[in-house]
Each structure stands twice: as C-alpha cells, then as structure tokens.
Amino acid sequence: xxxxxxxxxxxxxxxxxxxxxxxxxxxxxxxxxxxxxxxxxxxxxxxxxxxxxxxxxxxxxxxxxxxxxxxxxxxxxxxxxxxxxxxxxxxxxxxxxxxxxxxxxxxxxxxxxxxxxxxxxxxxxxxxxxxxxxxxxxxxxxxxxxxxxxxxxxxxxxxxxxxxxxxxxxxxxxxxxxxxxxxxxxxxxxxxxxxxxxxxxxxxxxxxxxxxxxxxxxxxxxxxxxxxxxxxxxxxxxxxxxxxxxxxxxxxxxxxxxxxxxxxxxxxxxxxxxxx
Length: 276
Ligand code: NDP
Fold this sequence. Notes:
Blueprint: E1 4-5, H1 8-23, E2 31-37, H2 41-56, E3 60-66, H3 72-84, E4 90-93, H4 103-108, H5 121-128, H6 137-148, E5 157-161, H7 168-177, E6 181-185, H8 192-196, E7 201-204, E8 222-225, E9 229-231, E10 234-236, H9 241-244, E11 250-251, H10 258-275
Parallel strand pairs: 1-11, 2-3, 2-4, 5-6, 5-7, 7-8, 8-11
Antiparallel strand pairs: 9-10
The structure holds NADPH dihydro-nicotinamide-adenine-dinucleotide phosphate (NDP).
Residues 138, 161-164, 166-168, 185-189, 192, 205-208, 226-229, 258-259, 262 line the site of NADPH dihydro-nicotinamide-adenine-dinucleotide phosphate.
C-alpha cells in the first residue's frame, strides 16, 4: 500500500488565505524585513520567494542588501534600526553569513519581539520551557503537516534524525511538548536504522540525498522529509521517496512538503508578531 502524501503546497495556500482574511480586520499592514549579506544566488532566490509570499498576503516587505565585506557592527546597526521601526513587525537575516561574521551575535541582536524566524535564544528558550511564543518556521511547518494526518502525537515515539538548532532540535522539543517520546539521532549515532525502525513519527533533516531507505522505516510510520538536496538537476529529499512510500503510512514529498510550509510559517510568525 502506498503512503498518503502530506501536501505542503496545498496547506500553505490555505494558510495564506486564512492570513488574508485575518488581515482584513487589521488597521495596519504587517511588515517583514529581510537582511541579506552578499549576493549568494540561492539566498537571493529564497528571498525572492519570501517577498512573493508577502505580496500574496498583502504584507509590506523590504530587503536590505549589504555587501559581502560589511563589518559585523554595521550589520548589527542595520538590525538595530529595524528593531526600532514601528512599521517593521518581523525581520530575519538570511543565512548563511560570511565567515567573518558571527552568526550567533547577529541573531542575538534581533529583538525577540521581531524575530520572524523564531531563532533568537529568547524564543528558543521559550520553546524549551513550553511557553507560548514564536517558534522556528520549519519545525512549526512540520507540526502542521503532522496534524494533517489526524493522528495524535501524544504517546507516539518520534525519532528526529538531525539535531541542528534550525530544524532537528526544535522539532524534537515541539513533539516532546506535545507528549511524544522523542529520540534524537545524529552523525555519531551507532546503528541509526535500529533507531529509525522504532519511529511512529520519523523526521529526517540531515542534508544527505535519499539516505533513509525502506528497510529503515517502520510500516505505517509518518515520515517527514525535510531535506532539500540537488541531484541531476532536480530536488530530492533525505528519504528515498519511491521505496519508502510503499512502507510509510503518511509521507511528505520533496518538493511540495516541508518547503512551502516553512515559508507559510514565516508569514504566520510575522502576523503573530504584528498582532502581539
Ligand atoms: P545541518 O547541516 O545544520 O544539520 C544536519 C544534521 O544532520 C546534523 O545534526 C548532523 O549530525 C546530522 N547528520 C548528518 N549526516 C548524518 C548521518 N549520516 N546520519 C545521521 N545524522 C546525520 O542541516 P539543517 O538541519 O540546516 O538542514 C538539514 C536538511 O534540511 C538540509 O537538506 C537542508 O537543506 C534542509 N532544510 C530544509 C528546509 C525546508 O524548508 N524544507 C529548511 C531547513 C533545512 P551532527 O550534529 O552530529 O553533525
């Protein structure tokens, strides 16, 4: 039997419609600022998508482009200017940054009340203690996709493969906060397959093309493939889609699964910050 696909493109569209409806009740326009350092083509493309998403929901958006050799203090000054602006409700700094700049210091300088990516330590700390707040976009999108299955998270064994602060770690916390039993796996985990086979909920965010194969998946599991890898001119996930879909109960496609949900959650976070 083939897995039911969790369609992130469709869900993201529904979320944007909901945001547009909510916006009609507001007396102001939510504003999102994106700061880009350098001109990495992939970053430029991601930012263009974010701007297009903002247009779709009638948010104000602006991009602040700084040269690749900008100093850390100039970058932080720009963030502080945005922190002080009342028409900017959310902001993010597009990653990666040049090696000369300390990413953590930059994220620290974003006002937590304007942190659209939910990656400031204050917001990650709120997640840790299960306090209401803005949560990182990709993990939040993953939770929404899991909710589409109609299955309860509580009591499930969730296995997160990958422990980055961007995806793996926060998604594990979000599942734990919803009473799943969570196992984290990473590059030093011995016998990874023995862990993944125990997963009712398998979240894979490692950046290794088609790494998870059918024999690593429990029959009927919910499999969320976060990976975006480029192989022979097309995007492939971290999960071997064609064979795993014959074993899993539910599965996200790549593309069209987690990616569009990450972008939709950025809009939701911006609206949340604008209304708080
Ligand atoms: P990172 O490189 O920051 O983290 C990768 C994680 O995977 C690390 O924890 C690493 O372990 C672990 N890992 C690497 N190789 C293995 C292995 N062989 N076995 C087990 N664990 C392994 O990546 P990100 O979390 O930022 O991204 C992961 C993937 O998700 C990428 O493909 C990225 O493009 C994609 N992504 C997609 C998004 C979307 O919207 N769809 C958003 C963000 C990311 P260790 O900690 O030990 O090094």
